Amino acid sequence: MKILSAILLAAAFTVSAMPAAAAESAAPVAIAIHAGAGTIKRENLDAARESEIQAKLEEAVRAGHQLLVSGGSSLDAVTRAVTILEDSPLFNAGRGAVFNAAGRNEMDASIMDGRTLNAGAVAAVHNIRNPILLARRVMTDSAHVMLIGEGAETFAREQGIAFEEDEWFRTEYRWQQLQQARERETARLDAQPEHWLSTVGAVALDSGGNLAAATSTGGMTNKRWGRVGDSPLIGAGNYAGNDSCAVSATGHGEYFIRATVARDICARVQFKGESLAEATRAVVMEQLSEMGASGGVIAMDPQGKIALTFNTAGMYRASIGTDGSVFIGIYRDD
Amino acid sequence: MKILSAILLAAAFTVSAMPAAAAESAAPVAIAIHAGAGTIKRENLDAARESEIQAKLEEAVRAGHQLLVSGGSSLDAVTRAVTILEDSPLFNAGRGAVFNAAGRNEMDASIMDGRTLNAGAVAAVHNIRNPILLARRVMTDSAHVMLIGEGAETFAREQGIAFEEDEWFRTEYRWQQLQQARERETARLDAQPEHWLSTVGAVALDSGGNLAAATSTGGMTNKRWGRVGDSPLIGAGNYAGNDSCAVSATGHGEYFIRATVARDICARVQFKGESLAEATRAVVMEQLSEMGASGGVIAMDPQGKIALTFNTAGMYRASIGTDGSVFIGIYRDD
Question: Would you call B225 and A258 a contact, using CB atoms and an 8 Å cutoff?
């Protein structure tokens, strides 16, 4: 027993000490995440906050990747990464979500399994600690794809999903954004684009060759009328299909819905034979830009190739490719 | 002046007396509508109800077509046709909508303009007489695409949209369906497929060459948890783009969301060069059938070609093609 333990310990040490790439088997794994896009410029972000954001992005992408390397599913990897981003007050999802016009945190999320095209989504939910976990539960434990509002919260209670008090979600930073928006009496999208675009998301490829995508958001500061953006809409802010690709989007949600951004990128790959880079460029840099829509996407094809494409000054993003190379970026020139 | 009036009168008379086909100018117009698909068999439908349904379908399709012939937009034509179907207690949309688990009529609708890709949608709204008119108002008078629940109703009030009391929507037929569903303690989709699939919708091409699509539904009898189906989701139950096609769907909504049915049909036309017939067949008869999903679509391409494609025994449907030919159908062999 002692010898066996020693061997196991040695094996464990060897694996963890190896670079990520070498730890992989023949089947490639990869992950990419985002935490929003907008007019993120070096002059607007102090060094402390920049480091904090980079560290959280790295924590999330490595946690998801670790699951993939140890044989976990892409669904688990994107769920794990998004949960970490939701739990961070830095981003507009879960804790730290923006406030709606009624002064509440009203959140949307969706998840999709590229192997089966199963999907789950929730919109306009309150007090759900991790909306992505609720979206996943909708996928796995209901006959439905999309649940909204109080009904979705009832389902969450029945499922034992974790709730938090309002205080958990509240950050002074987001509260002040609401006060500013109220003063402007507007939920205008171009008011503070560096803030409202900070949806979070992840895409991943697991060793079984399966893609998955997850997206979570607090939506738009000062939003009214039960406004729903692209994040919880399959084919708009989120999509995964093993035959095509996986996409999670962040940006001006209304345009992303109209352009069915996530599905269109994958449809171009699937039906037109475009590469992932060509497809994301056509949709984000050409179509969305022509529509006047700001934002970006992270995308992954069935070979684990990654595209991090945005038409804004910056996008919080990170990835670990099939070769194990780690990338963390904020600005365009990162 | 008298001579001019006489000439105008003569011209007006000539146009209205001509068959629809001849009344068209060089620019073709066309319209198609549906009011649900399912296990609609001759033995399940008595002659009186059959006639009633046929008459309402004909009224709706002719009303939409009349607008097109007189130079109206495809948006106006699909809105008009769907409004007529919503106002009829025969179909599961507006008046006559099914009841949710709480015993309320909870409705979804969406509309899309193929020229601009503008879109509007509402989900889980109550007491709105014509949900399609509210969806259109979201498109034209808000900065948003999708509004849900009480928030959408607040927007409706601000916009002067017509509300009706619960009694307006209530039909004994739908109420009994709810009681039966409650007895079975289920909202199972295969329980009474001839009922729950009766979403309504329309697609049209106007003389300006613009496509539009509109879809409206009461959803699923006994639905809980704020369940939203495909009807209000752009790219799932509804889509229109002048570069590709227009689609309105009816069927097992969860599968239609996962397969992004409406956008996928149009993406096949746009990116793969498939004909409308090939694209609807691939998605409805192959992909959806393989997924075990029942339903159908009406679709129209930029030349006004029409596809009425369903994998169920029947689909309530009607169309007037670019040649002015009128078709009304219920069963597969119609």
Answer: no
- The predicted-structure confidence for B245-298, as pLDDT tens digits, reads as follows 999 999 999 999 999 999 999 999 999 999 999 999 999 999 999 999 999 999
Rounded Cα distance between B110 and B248, Å, is: 10
Q: What is the pLDDT, as a whole number, of residue B147?
A: 98
Residue A217 is among the residues annotated as catalytic for this protein? no
pLDDT in tens, A288-311: 999 999 999 999 999 999 999 999
Interface contact flag, A226 B147, Cβ < 8 Å: yes
The predicted structure's pLDDT at residue B11: 36
Share of chain B above pLDDT 90, in %: 79
- At residue A25 the predicted structure's pLDDT band, cuts being 50, 70 and 90, is low
- DSSP, collapsed to helix, strand or coil, labels residue A194 as helix
User: Angle at Cα A134 formed by Cα A115 and Cα A129, nearest 5°?
Assistant: 135
pLDDT band at A41; cut points 50, 70, 90: confident
- Does A37 contact B at CB distance below 8 Å? no
**DSSP type of residue A284:** I
Q: How far is the first Cα of chain A from the last one, in angstroms, to the nearest whole number?
A: 50
With helix as H, strand as E and coil as C, how does chain B read?
CHHHHHHHHHHHHHHHHCCHHHHCCCCCCEEEEEEEEECCCHHHCCHHHHHHHHHHHHHHHHHHHHHHHCCCCHHHHHHHHHHHHHHCCCCCCCCCCCECCCCCECEEEEEEECCCCCEEEEEEECCECCHHHHHHHHHHHCCCCEEEHHHHHHHHHHCCCCECCHHHHCCHHHHHHHHHHHHCCCCCCCCCHHHHCCCEEEEEECCCCCEEEEEEECCCCCCCCCEECCCCCECCCEEECCCCCEEEEEECHHHHHHCCHHHHHHHHHHHHCCCHHHHHHHHHHHHHHHHCCCEEEEEECCCCCEEEEECCCEEEEEEECCCCCEEEEEECCC
Average pLDDT rounded to a whole number, residues B110-131: 98
Q: Which structure tokens are listed for A56?
A: 């959280």
Look at domain B3-12+28-331 and name its CATH class.
alpha beta
Looking at every residue in chain B, the average pLDDT score rounds to 90
- Contact partners, residue B192, CB within 8 Å, separation at least 6: B177, B180, B181, B221
Q: Of B188, B233, B258, which is closest to A117 when you measure between CB atoms? A: B258
Nearest by CB to residue A267, choosing from B143, B257, B264, is B264
Distances (CA, A) of B114 to B203, B238, B268: 10, 11, 16
Residue A121 is classified by DSSP as E
> Distance between CA B104 and CA B237 in Å, rounded?
22
Contact between B234 and B214 under an 8 Å Cβ cutoff? The reply is no
- Alpha carbons A236 and A227: distance in angstroms, whole number: 15
Residue A323 CA to chain centroid, in angstroms? 22
Note whether B181 contacts A: Cβ–Cβ < 8 A: no
Helix-helix angle B131-141:B149-158, to 10 degrees: 80
The helix/strand/coil state of A203 is strand
Instruction: List the domain boundaries for chain A.
Output: 3-12+28-331
What is the reported pLDDT for B110?
Answer: 98
Could you tell me how far CA B318 lies from the centroid of its own chain?
11
Q: Provide the ipTM.
A: 0.89
Note whether B263 contacts A263, CB cutoff 8 Å.
yes
Q: What is the mean pLDDT of chain A?
A: 90
Element (H, E) at A34: strand A30-38
